[in-house]
């Protein structure tokens, strides 16, 4: 029984090594193919850009300006329906918070400005 376990372990280890080697070979093949494709890509993209410029210059591709404007405003209306609007109480509360923060920072800037102005006046008099 002990020898059969050793044999099974050895065969499974050998299978794992074979699988690893096969995966490594596949990876190397993929890398080689990618390198070959990268060399071809700049030429093919230049050709594609020329074709796309010709197609975009055709007049029939874009709809009428008025149709595009209507589509734009329909999209805006659709998106505004998705917006979660604040209630009146929430709006007043958050507006109060913003006004309070602005008032605090205004006071702090006034204090620093007055202090630096007084310091500058002392330095100028001497």
Automatic annotation (TrEMBL):
Membrane topology term: Single-pass membrane protein
Stretches with biased composition (Basic and acidic residues): 14-41
UniProt keyword list: Cell membrane, Membrane, Protein transport, Translocation, Transmembrane, Transmembrane helix, Transport
Primary site of residence: membrane
Subcellular location: Cell membrane; Membrane
One Pfam family matching this protein: SecE
Transmembrane parts of this sequence: 97-124
Positions of the UniProt region annotated as Disordered: 1-63
Presence of the UniProt keyword Glycoprotein in the record: no
Stored Gene3D superfamilies: Preprotein translocase secy subunit (1.20.5.1030)
Subunit structure: Component of the Sec protein translocase complex. Heterotrimer consisting of SecY, SecE and SecG subunits. The heterotrimers can form oligomers, although 1 heterotrimer is thought to be able to translocate proteins. Interacts with the ribosome. Interacts with SecDF, and other proteins may be involved. Interacts with SecA.
Stated family: Belongs to the SecE/SEC61-gamma family.
PANTHER family (alphabetical): PROTEIN TRANSLOCASE SUBUNIT SECE
Function: Essential subunit of the Sec protein translocation channel SecYEG. Clamps together the 2 halves of SecY. May contact the channel plug during translocation.
Protein name as it appears in the record: Protein translocase subunit SecE
Source species: Acetobacterium fimetarium
Classification lineage: Bacteria, Bacillati, Bacillota, Clostridia, Eubacteriales
